[in-house]
Amino acid sequence: MPVTVPASLSSFSTLFVFLIFANAVVLVAPKSTIEPCSNSNSCNALLGYTLYTDLKVSEVASLFQIDPISLLTSNAIDISYPDVENHILPSQLFLKVPITCSCVDGIRKSVSTRYKTRPSDTLSFISDSIYAGLVSSDQIREANSISDPSVLDVGQNLVVPLPCTCFNGTDNSLPAIYLSYVVKPVDTLAGIASRYTTTITDLMNVNAMGSSAINPGDIIAVPLPACASNFPRYASDNGLIVPNGSYAITASHCVQCSCGPGNLKLYCMPASLAVSCSSMQCRNSNLMLGNVTAQQSSAGCNVSACGYGGFVNGSIVTMLSTSLQPRCPGVQQFPPLIAPPTTVIKDPTLAPAPAPQSEVAGSPTSSVVPSTSSLPRFNPAGGPAGSASGVSAARSLMNPIDILPAVATLLLFVKLMIFHSS
Ligand SMILES: *[C@@H]1O[C@H](CO)[C@@H](O)[C@H](O)[C@H]1NC(C)=O
Ligand SMILES: *[C@@H]1O[C@H](CO)[C@@H](O)[C@H](O)[C@H]1NC(C)=O
Ligand SMILES: *[C@@H]1O[C@H](CO)[C@@H](O)[C@H](O)[C@H]1NC(C)=O
Ligand SMILES: *[C@@H]1O[C@H](CO)[C@@H](O)[C@H](O)[C@H]1NC(C)=O
Ligand SMILES: *[C@@H]1O[C@H](CO)[C@@H](O)[C@H](O)[C@H]1NC(C)=O
């Protein structure tokens, strides 16, 4: 190896060579978090994606081969807006893109995205612009065994491997979904932590970082608090997890579930999209999916709820539950919806997370708590402040090994030694 090591350190030279080599690798390749996995289960994850140009909702969805409605609900964008799938989203808008995270060769990644090359595409344009740094040219080259990257056939269907993590759907034992976030030049770890209401320590732990330094292009995994579902394994929407402040659409567009803002309990109800759906009434009751009735008694509040139990064989499973609770539940609150964005609000970078909408729910003493029917309408007061407003890009940083902090510390030590001895 053409690495010279001071004689005084020769007894450690093998280690040094390894460390210097490791250092070089760390400096050259953008970091991203690597999560080992053993089974073939897939899970849900999010990509932080910044639009490289104006794109229709449906165009963004087709870049990732996902359902446009899911893209909208993940970003709490009002789907009742007329012709919303053809709405043009502005360049530089930041979106959370819901994807399926698989386990491939023992590592979590998303491999369901294909890109059909167009005239004048280059690998770096595809990776840096179209997929906004979520993938590198080398990764596309390797995934597709491209020997000569200068020759891309038009119409070639390229596999676009994308970073994702799941960590069992939890963070510090609480339900969480992970956003793969591409670090921008203006970003600091503290800024990212504050924007996503987490802590520097948590981000460092999740990403096995030895220091809080981040570089543009790194991809870090950001845990977002979420509402977990508990659908059976045989349900097609098993593992559904909805981040706080957003919605998900499931059961062939028949059911919509929301998370937050008041608590992190998944709340599902009929979706307002006009489609034919199987029955959403709970058996042996007159309650529909999402209905909650509450009856105050001397012993407490007798709460009956018709909940959603997953989509099984094309049928919507409903579950009636009754429980005696100390207090009657308030009116169901929903995350504020935003209108489809037409402009990008700059500057969320210095500001902490957008102020939550405060809509006080009464604490009804009445016997029936009607759940609001249909999708809550766009509330102008919510403004375009939510998750879609940022210019932040998400990338997930996967440090393959937990020993990285130790390596970094050792490196520093070694560098000092070399400095001193020269
Ligand atoms: C993953 O989560 C499930 C419940 O969601 C739990 O039973 C299991 O122990 C967790 N596994 C790990 C490795 O944390
Ligand atoms: C969920 O989001 C709401 C509104 O943004 C916020 O007030 C609340 O603290 C969040 N909950 C958690 C657990 O992060
Ligand atoms: C609670 O309400 C349900 C349905 O209204 C009823 O069947 C049940 O007996 C009630 N339980 C109590 C403890 O009042
Ligand atoms: C779903 O349908 C298939 C065949 O129609 C059946 O074998 C299977 O048991 C069903 N699953 C459930 C959970 O009902
Ligand atoms: C039950 O849910 C349906 C559908 O969401 C809604 O139209 C109805 O008003 C609800 N009824 C009660 C009593 O909550």
From TrEMBL:
Listed Low complexity bias regions: 363-374
Residue ranges, annotated region (Disordered): 348-382
GO cellular component: plasma membrane
Any one Gene Ontology BP term: immune response
One Pfam family, short name: LysM
Gene Ontology terms for molecular function: peptidoglycan binding
InterPro entries cross-referenced by the UniProt entry: LysM, LysM_dom_sf
UniProt KW Zinc-finger keyword: no
Gene3D superfamilies, A to Z: LysM domain
UniProt domain LysM: residue ranges: 113-160, 179-222
Keywords: Signal
Signal peptide: 1-24
Superkingdom assignment: Eukaryota
PANTHER family, A to Z: LYSM DOMAIN-CONTAINING GPI-ANCHORED PROTEIN 1, LYSM DOMAIN-CONTAINING GPI-ANCHORED PROTEIN 2
Protein known as: LysM domain-containing protein
Protein source organism: Eucalyptus grandis
